[in-house]
Amino acid sequence: MNKKNKFAERLKELRKERNMSQMELAVATGISQSAIAKWELEKTEPTASALIVLAEFFGESADFLLGLAD
Question: How many CA atoms within 13 Å lie on the side-chain side of 28?
């Protein structure tokens, strides 16, 4: 599995663990729902700043989100 797939998988997994919709995650993080949807569908990749926001929100490292660490 490539790293892009791993990010999409982990983002969706973490969001669902919190029982959040994409819209709820968008509101909580200030990231647009469309961006979150595109990431989960592997259409685009997050910016470094968005990755930091997600890592802080979920309490995970950016490396974990990107599939570089377990």
Answer: 15
pLDDT in tens, 53-65: 999 999 999 999 9
Give yes or no for a contact between 39 and 33, defined as CB atoms under 8 angstroms apart.
no
The structure's pTM equals 0.91
CB 70 within 8 A of CB 60: no
Domain 3-66 has CATH 1.10.260.40: yes
3-state secondary structure 17-51: HCCCCHHHHHHHHCCCHHHHHHHHCCCCCCCHHHH
Domain-by-domain residue ranges, the chain? 3-66
The pLDDT tens digits for 28-52 are 999 999 999 999 999 999 999 999 9
